[in-house]
Design a protein that fits this description.
The chain has a single domain (6-116, 182-256), classed as Rossmann fold (3-Layer(aba) Sandwich), CATH 3.40.50. It contains eight helices and nine strands. The protein has helices at residues 16-19, 21-26, 31-39, 61-65, 83-95, 109-115, 210-223, 252-256, and strands at 6-12, 45-51, 69-73, 98-102, 122-134, 148-158, 168-175, 180-189, 192-197. A hairpin with a 4-residue loop joins strand 7 (168-175) and strand 8 (180-189).
């Protein structure tokens, strides 16, 4: 990958597309390839993909070190993701890698780890219309999006959503059955940025929707360490003080070995 571009890895469980004819018809190459294909149109992004059944889930130490933003979709096999992989992903987020969690990825090991809560919610499959209302039109993730995104059919997710209060709330969903849901939640963990985006039930063509694609494009730029002004802090022992320290009567030996 070109290190001068935002290096994006789109990770997908890639199970439904192999076992469900409806899903395979919508995403013949997998949801990850549909998402990646749109991102590859962006000149400032270098995009690769990884899936659950690849060795090390496709998320080797080298892959993660070369990833600025990781996009995550999972559903039926959260428990199959190895804890060692979750540990490595968490470490990279804390170092500054961005994480975008999509739809049922709310219950992935990595999202629950980063939230520190159950991440449980209510849900219903009834082919409902969904309106994603923009609650913060000034947020970078909402740029180029109108007052709301309307999806003709989606799976309902409803409150209460057991996550920490978002640092920024970009979208709130309304469903035809009357439920509402916090659908665009931003968090900071360590030096990393996390965005949870709700739409994307596998039996609907949600990731083919241009507005949904635009949100993901915006989210990648927002979540990228290259896209923010954070300076990585130094952690560890400081051998030289910033100001001159007065010994105040202590001997050199006492300064070298406190408590002597």
């Amino acid at each position: 990958m070109n290190k001068n571009k935002i290096r994006v890895t789109v990770w997908n469980e890639f199970r439904h597309e192999k076992t469900n004819a409806t899903v395979k018809g919508i995403y013949p190459s997998g949801m990850h390839e549909t998402i990646a294909a749109r991102l590859r149109n962006e000149p400032d992004m270098a995009v690769s993909t990884a899936t659950l059944d690849e060795p090390e889930h496709g998320l080797t130490k080298k892959v993660l070190e070369q990833t600025d933003v990781l996009i995550w979709w999972g559903h039926m096999a959260h428990g199959e993701v190895k804890d060692e992989t979750v540990d490595m992903v968490q470490a990279r987020i804390l170092e500054g890698m961005g994480l975008i969690v999509l739809h049922s990825g709310h219950y992935s090991k990595i999202f629950r780890r980063m939230m520190g809560t159950t991440c449980l919610l209510r849900w219903r499959e009834a082919h409902e219309k969904e309106k994603l209302w923009v609650t913060d039109p000034t947020h970078p993730i909402a740029q180029g999006i109108g007052p709301c995104i309307e999806l003709p059919h989606e799976e309902m997710y409803g409150e209460h959503f057991d996550v920490p209060t978002p640092d920024d709330l970009v979208f709130v969903s309304w469903f035809e059955g009357g439920d509402v849901f916090r659908s665009g939640c931003c968090y900071k963990r360590g030096l990393g940025r996390i965005f949870y985006f709700r739409p994307g039930h596998e039996v609907y063509p949600t990731y083919h929707n241009p507005e949904i694609q635009k949100v993901i494009v915006n989210a990648v730029r927002w979540a990228s360490f290259q896209g923010n002004d954070t300076v990585k802090p130094y952690y560890g022992k400081m051998t030289e003080p910033l100001e001159k320290i007065s010994a105040r009567g202590y001997t050199a030996e006492q300064i070298k070995h406190p408590g002597v």
